[in-house]
Design brief:
about 250 residues, alpha/beta, Nucleotidyltransferase, domain 5, 5-stranded mixed β-sheet, 10 helices, about 15% strand, globular
């Protein structure tokens, strides 16, 4: 029972995060789907129970309906990388965001990979969702790599990537924006990366402070880029793979 209560506390913390991220508009069905997409194995009835006990109830008056502006965004930014493989670094960048548990809280981790080498170009940790997060990690990658115009930036369709501030920054760089169309599998390299990160570092590791989490992430990303052998790269590290291309 103690283990069950502890799991309920962790689950409720994540439920609160999803509820707040969507401005209280998500009821238990949508919260449950969000949890499933993040890899939680939990029943819808359990989500309903925890939300009811915590007084979390979605606002029916704010049911989401696609706007014309959002439909125009999707039309202008199709999946430009489907079946496309970069032939050199800085041709295709991939971005995504995931949640990392921190004590009884959560942190958002935004990462950018180079599709050619799978190299982690930049990462940013934050407390809240928003374009500030995605712009920060994009700017960090740009400072390190200085890409030429023509870069393709691919991500899912999260609001952090469809925000005007992020779109404008890509436009300034002369980059083309690409968006996943159907969900899982449309950003497979990022999904695989986050799976490895969670399997090799996050799962089973209780991070007590943000400083500890940042330290462990830095260590992991260094290992991933410089030491970890990738089967897709002929069992070379991303850094070695890029070095062989120059």
């Amino acid at each position: 029972m103690c283990a069950r209560r502890q799991q309920d506390r962790q689950l409720l913390a994540r439920i609160r995060g999803i509820f707040a991220a969507h401005d209280g508009t998500y009821g238990s069905p949508r919260v449950h789907e969000e949890l499933r997409a993040e890899g939680w194995h939990v029943s819808r009835r359990r989500v309903e129970r925890l939300m009811r006990a915590a007084g979390l109830r979605g606002r029916v008056a704010r049911i989401y309906r696609p706007s014309r502006a959002l439909n125009r965004f999707y039309h202008q930014h199709p999946n430009r990388v489907r079946g496309l493989h970069a032939a050199a670094p800085n041709q295709i960048w991939l971005g995504d965001i995931t949640y990392i548990p921190l004590a009884t809280q959560w942190r958002l981790l935004a990462v950018i990979l180079d599709q050619y080498s799978r190299r982690v170009l930049a990462w940013t940790l934050a407390r809240h969702r928003g374009a500030r997060l995605t712009c920060a990690v994009l700017n960090a990658a740009v400072r390190r790599r200085q890409p030429n115009a023509g870069l393709i930036f691919h991500s899912d369709r999260a609001t952090e990537y469809s925000a005007a501030a992020f779109r404008d920054r890509l436009r300034e760089l002369g980059a083309y924006q690409s968006a996943a169309l159907t969900g899982p599998g449309e950003n497979a390299h990022m999904e695989s990366f986050f799976h490895s990160l969670k399997a090799e570092l996050v799962h089973g590791t209780p991070f007590k402070t943000e400083a500890e989490l940042r330290s462990q992430l830095r260590r992991y990303f260094y290992h991933y880029n410089n030491e970890r052998r990738h089967s897709a790269l002929g069992y070379r590290s991303p850094v070695d793979y890029e070095a062989a291309a120059t």
